[in-house]
């Protein structure tokens, strides 16, 4: 099995002082770490799609006009773990190469479809809920459906939007990461980490907000004036991207430190080494 940055014949020449590992030990380390990053990526993806837009976290309120009606800056709870997926694909891109990073992205798309299938089948199979005279699920005193159907309704809109935005954004992330890596000849780790994440998350934020709005899943009144709708969408996009931007800048430190430490652990060429610039 070929890995990004395969071992030089002399491990000691690359990392003097570290014990030499057998091919079996190298394989176990590399595959084990790959499974860890892929597992975090896919688990986070499943979690954020279920949580989706079930709740919005209020970050700030600012009264720009001084009229007592502040603009609320909020992000969907599903956005909170999302930056972790980009950090995982950046690590996989750096340590294992473009093909493996793209593979994880496509498996993530399959996972999204699987989540939607479970939500769909869970709703069409007969359950224990009380039904109305025409066979519909009865609402409670607060005019709400049972919890599963509330989650199902919100998740359908969120997952559909995120599937499209996710696929575009993650593939952009991998492409831009390797574009910067090739352009800088493997140097400037911080540039490809931040450059790829910031571009891809802008694409993702704009796409997911507009698609979710088009599906009618955002908390915007149906008869709201066009100007109010545009302003609200702009605030959602700006808030979501600002949050992701802040997290992306913060994750430069763990990515930079982790890439160097994990390269040693896996006996791969150090970041910036000629042999590490493969794709």
Features:
279 residues; mainly alpha; two-stranded antiparallel sheet; 8 helices; 2 strands; globular; disordered N terminus
Report on the structure:
- This protein is mainly alpha-helical and 279 residues long.
- The chain has one domain.
- It is 64% helix and 5% strand.
- The chain contains eight helices and two strands; from the N terminus they run ααββαααααα.
- Strands 1-2 form a two-stranded antiparallel ribbon.
- Strand 1 and strand 2 form a beta hairpin.
- The longest helix has 37 residues.
- The radius of gyration is 23 Å and the shape is globular.
What are the SSEs and their pairings?
Blueprint: H1 11-14, H2 23-51, E1 56-62, E2 71-76, H3 82-96, H4 98-124, H5 147-183, H6 189-214, H7 226-250, H8 252-266
Antiparallel strand pairs: 1-2
The neighbouring-strand order within the major sheet is: 1-2
Give the helix/strand class: mainly alpha
Beta-strand share of residues: under 5%
Overall number of strands: 2
Uncertain spans: 1-10, 274-279
Largest sheet: 2 strands, antiparallel
Global shape: globular
Number of helices: 8
Gap from first CA to last CA = 15 Å
What is the C-alpha radius of gyration, as a whole number of Å? 23 Å
């Amino acid at each position: 099995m070929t890995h990004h940055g395969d071992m030089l014949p002399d491990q000691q020449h690359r990392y003097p002082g570290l014990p030499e590992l057998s091919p079996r030990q190298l394989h176990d380390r590399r595959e084990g770490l790959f499974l860890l990053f892929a597992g975090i990526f896919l688990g986070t993806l499943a979690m954020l799609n279920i949580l989706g837009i079930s709740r919005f976290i209020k970050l700030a309120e600012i009264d720009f006009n001084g009229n007592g009606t502040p603009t609320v800056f909020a992000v969907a709870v599903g956005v909170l773990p999302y930056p972790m997926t980009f950090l995982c694909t950046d690590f996989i891109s750096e340590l294992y190469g473009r093909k493996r990073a793209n593979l994880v992205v496509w498996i993530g798309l399959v996972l999204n479809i699987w989540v939607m299938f479970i939500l769909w089948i869970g709703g069409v199979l007969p359950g224990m809920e009380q039904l109305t005279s025409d066979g519909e699920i009865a609402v409670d005193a607060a005019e709400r459906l049972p919890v599963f159907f509330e989650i199902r309704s919100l998740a359908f809109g969120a997952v559909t939007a995120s599937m499209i935005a996710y696929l575009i954004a993650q593939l952009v992330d991998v492409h831009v990461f390797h574009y910067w890596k090739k352009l800088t000849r493997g140097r400037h780790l911080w540039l490809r980490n931040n450059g790829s994440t910031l571009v891809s998350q802008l694409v993702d934020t704009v796409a997911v907000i507009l698609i979710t709005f088009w599906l009618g899943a955002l908390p915007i009144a149906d008869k709201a004036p066009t100007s109010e709708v545009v302003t609200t969408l702009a605030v959602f996009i700006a808030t979501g991207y600002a949050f992701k931007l802040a997290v992306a800048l913060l994750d430069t430190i763990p990515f930079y430190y982790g890439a160097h430490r994990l390269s040693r652990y896996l006996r791969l060429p150090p970041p910036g080494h000629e042999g590490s610039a493969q794709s």
